[in-house]
Amino acid sequence: RDPAHVKGNGIHTIQELIDKENEDPRRGYGHENVLTEITVDRDTLDLLAKKDYTLETIPEKGEVVYLKSTANLSTGGTSIDVTDIVHPQNIFICERISRVIGLDICGIDIMAQNLTQPLTENGGVVLEVNAAPGFRMHLAPSEGLPRNVASSVVDMLYPQGRLSQIPIIAVTGTNGKTTTTRLIAHIVRSNGKRVGFTTSDGVYVHNTMLMKGDTTGPVSAEFILKDPTVEFAVLETARGGILRAGLGFNACDIGVVTNIQEDHLGISDIHTLDDLTRVKAVVIGAVRRKGWAVLNADNGYCVRIAKEARCNVAYFSMDENNPVIKEHCRKGGVAAIYENGFITIKTGDWKLRVDKATHIPLTFGGSVNFMIQNVLAATLATYLWGYKPEDIRLSLETFIPSAAHTPGRMNVFNFKDFKVLVDFAHNPDGFNGVKAFLQSVDATKHVGIISGTGDRRDEDIIETAKISAQMFDKIYICQEKYLRGRDQQELVDLLIQGIKEVDPNKEIVINNKSTACLQEAIDTAEKGSYITILSNTIDNTIQRVTEHLDRELEG
């Protein structure tokens, strides 16, 4: 490289020569072109002063006047390609330097009379090693042959014949997204891959939370996909993120739709289940042609999505006699079904039992249907990716539901005289799922703590209250948060209305302070009772219940 300079012609001043040099179409501002404009700064004036020159001096014809003390292209310098004349000893030195430091790509700055002789003979020295060298001087040297170094770098990063993208499984739906995402990630991780996954409670890499919050949008997906340590991505993809900014990826290998139920209607111009289906179908539209759409055959809206899918389609169902499953498998299709208590893969007429539901902790002994549905979806997705049934079975049996593993998803706390269940159910379908589970629970009294969400429709809030009245003997209404533009009392009144429509005499306690409400429920709990907290503030609820349990254990 040569420092910025001009060559005199005996006619023009140094300033005029600089202006003329900057007319070169190869020069531009900053890094916008192959060369950079020459600017006059303190360094320039100091160099000229050492020769008793000013910008108005007229250099003699052929005289080279240097304008910068460094040879950087960013300050107007030029480059000469000498690739073909570098001495082999110097090449060896540079290669050794890169290996000693551990860099695949680096720029090595050398100061020497020339590179045709070994540095050890001409007094040359290595000045520095750059981990992120510029390409301009190689792509478009001022003299010599251009070298397409970028091509070599790309070939090294993405070798021919080797996959250059990590697998992506995207999970969407109304209910069950987070649990299905976590279970898929657990299966993949248990089989040796470093997994990155996003959920409504945080972003995780290899089971370590790196970002907390509702992280189910494109920004969170990009966070995972830009992490070079991640080998497999499992991305929970929610309605809100799709509507705001689309997906965080161009294409995925498998798309899962758990179900489509009434939730978030009336928000962001989504007023009907048909509208919501179109939003969820965006994920399936992003599946590669050779990839798979995993859809719930028990949900009519999910089945509709299959008609527009441009990829392979597989179904899961709680009923092997589901007409969709029977027709699909008659044509040789793949499905996951729940039959005779087993999680089973069915291809055509052929069945392969993966595991018994009672052996899978997440299903609570096979008593929670919506958890079995999540297991079916995760099993089918990972089977389609290529994992063996025996490997999936082991992963299913080692996925333990807990506040740490599945926060807010059927978390049970065993106190001495009673039990507490914390769940994130927040729509009618979720409430019905909890109701079905509680029907299998033997308890002297069922107590519920519920709240409404302000941005939901009146009928949805009332419906959750009706279901609560059917499954609880005593109901606490705790409307502390999630007003979302509504008056607190308005939400409380809607909940009371729904409860009274089912049972006008239902015991109702209103306590809008969550800490005090939980304290009262625990303090007044009867022996053998079962307290169910359906909370939108899962972290705080789990923390508070855990504190109560710790105090009891400490005596």
Instruction: Supply the number of structural domains.
Output: 4
From the 3D structure, determine the CATH topology of the largest domain.
Answer: UDP-N-acetylmuramoyl-L-alanine:D-glutamate ligase
Q: Kindly report the spatial arrangement of strands forming the biggest sheet.
A: 10-9-8-11-7-12-13-14-15-16-17
- Beta-strand portion reads 15-25%
What fraction, in percent, of the residue positions are helical? 25-40%
- What is the 3D shape? elongated
Report on this structure:
- The chain is of the alpha/beta class.
- The protein folds into 4 domains: 5-75, no CATH class; 83-157, ATP-grasp fold, B domain (D-amino Acid Aminotransferase, Chain A, domain 1); 168-397, Mur-like, catalytic domain (UDP-N-acetylmuramoyl-L-alanine:D-glutamate ligase); 411-554, Protein-Tyrosine Phosphatase, Chain A.
Chain-wise SSE layout:
Elements: E1 5-7, H1 14-21, E2 27-28, E3 35-36, H2 42-50, E4 64-66, H3 88-101, E5 107-111, H4 119-122, E6 125-130, H5 136-139, H6 149-157, E7 168-172, H7 177-190, E8 195-199, E9 202-205, E10 208-212, H8 218-225, E11 232-236, H9 239-245, E12 252-257, H10 273-285, E13 287-296, H11 300-308, E14 312-317, H12 323-330, E15 334-339, E16 342-347, E17 350-356, H13 369-385, H14 389-397, E18 411-414, E19 419-423, H15 428-438, E20 446-450, H16 458-471, E21 474-477, H17 488-502, E22 507-510, H18 514-523, E23 530-534, H19 538-554
Helix pairs in contact: 7-13, 7-14, 10-11, 15-16, 16-17, 18-19
